[in-house]
Write the structure tokens for this entry.
Amino acid sequence: MTPCKLLFATSTALVVLATMGCSSSDHVALPARQPSAELPPSAVPSPPPSTAGSVRTAIAEVYASYWPASAMAATSTPAKAREILAPFVSGRFLDVQVQRIGEYQARNQEPWGQPVVHVTDVTLGPGFTASLHDCMDASRAGLADDGTHQLIPETLGSSDTHMAADLKRGRDGRWRITSIVQLDAPCNPDSFSS
């Protein structure tokens, strides 16, 4: 991933205002795990083909929910940002997101506007992995000066921002994003059905 793509993906993650609504995770007490009944991740069977549609829907929902969560995280302390993002991202991507949030805050920048997510494709991969494509409309999203709250014009996105994300299902059964990049080729927002 080139630094430019990482920078854009990170700045795009910071452009959504919390007004888009934030997903909250309801914490449910689970029964104690039975170590002898737990299967290693490689032994857990894939979902049957009949549920592939619902799995794809769940993946798209996690991705769409990530954006308002990232906006909330962008104005939080590093510890709180990590807590907000943890249900949506994992691994090195979580560490990078928290680091970038600190860098934007040090430059006195905050999210401005909100992108509109248009998931165009979800592909299930081996080992509980998935990839997703998004023809994002980021034409009303960017970064603002956190003192004036005015848009920094050169950060404004475009209506045909082609994003790609990789996800992995954790042992808790939840899908989390492990990377997001902007692809060089723009996408056509009219080429998908809502």
